[in-house]
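FAQ: What does a multi-protein file look like?

Like this. Sequence, then tokens, then the next protein.
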Amino acid sequence: MDDVKIVGTLDVTQLVFYAFVLFFIALVFYLRREDRREGYPLEDEATGMVDTPGGPLSRAEPKTFLLPHGQGTSSPERWRRDPVDIPAKRAFGSNGAPYVPTGDPFADRLGPASWTERMHTPDLTADGRLRIVPLSSTDHVTVSPRDAQPVGMTMIGADGKEAGKVTDAWVDMSEHHIRYLEVATPGGQVLAPMAMAKVHGKRGVVVIDAIRADQFAGVPKIKQPGTITLNEEERIVAYFGGGYLYADPQRQEPLI
């Protein structure tokens, strides 16, 4: 028995087949647009300007994420960087050549001292409390008596000179370990990453070989006492990270 014709020679079987083909094409477009929300359109690696605008497969609306604890929303498009003029030059004539600083690499966000623009709000615990706080502000977290107490010790830089005194330790309330050491320097209070510090309890000193003692004065400072934002964390860690290459000109030379 012949299938029932709907219009002319178009029957139900053909209609279902055409519907499936259209659905499949639409599905391919949808999936390709979804997996190209971030990172598209492509940008030039040197200038950050749009390199390839992209076609209909890369024009999905930017993702918007709901932030916890009433912090609003965030979108990757919000953090797209504007073109910047970095005071540096290529080591040799190639797009893959490393940059050589011509100014202050710590301030110019160059190489290992580079940082990304994170949110200007503090990191929070799962229940909405400040995640990183000074040890002196909490009464239920202490340094184990089996470990050396860094507070009160002398901070020593990469040049072996005194940078200041450790006045407090900032602890992670989610993971219960020290994240930063607060150091009183001639230029004011600064935070130093604990992950880059070596505590010598018998000598009563803390050594950070990332930067020289005089360079502690240039560490980015926090704006609000007792609170550190994600953006401030990013900049502080980048400053110390950049010291492993830029603190001493000799560190930029080959080992052999």
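And here is the next protein:
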Amino acid sequence: MNDDIRKRLRWVQLYEELGNAAVVCLRCGISRPTLRKWWTRYQELGGAGLQEQSRRPKSSPSKKVLPAHEKLIADLRKRKLGHRRIQNELRRLHENSLSTATIHKILGRIGKPILNHKRAYRKQITRYSRPISGDRVQIDVCKIALDIYQYTAIDDCTRYKVLRLYRRRTADNTMEFFDAVIEEMPFPIQRIQTDRGREFFATKFQERLLEWGIKFRPIKPASLT
């Protein structure tokens, strides 16, 4: 008699002696279902019932796979279908549900290799960037609502951003926004690039850029950059 059987026999004997499942479980450190299971087996089979029983399933999934199913799977593989597509086609056309693991085993048994689909990788995008902070700052104005214009300044190196909202896009508002950019950006600005809006070509704004020694680089006409 091995140690496990001896231990289970002790549980059963203690229960027969005390007749109190709660006390037996507490003293032996087991649960009520565990005690109930071994007590029931002992009553039905005696000492043989205290042996560990095989947990192998009584029915094997492979038994439901017939030669006809293997032929269907082989025919579907000829259409270059993968495991999951084959599973869906079997369920849709033949009302047969097989797991992808079972389909994989069948394909291996009939000598059909796993499909090696080449994945389409996205082309790696290199983000435009300047090497030095402040080397170029992009300023843009866009209308986001009725009488509301958003001024945006973004540094092409650090992506540091400054935003302001104004009721109009004028030279005066552009100069006020420029002063905010100079104050908030933590590095000197060498160049400013804008579109060809009139507020940027106004004389007073161009003079302000000269005062700060900042180069003005408007984008080319009909250009996005």
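Q: Is there any per-entry metadata?
A: Some entries carry free-text notes. For the entry above: The mean pLDDT is 84.
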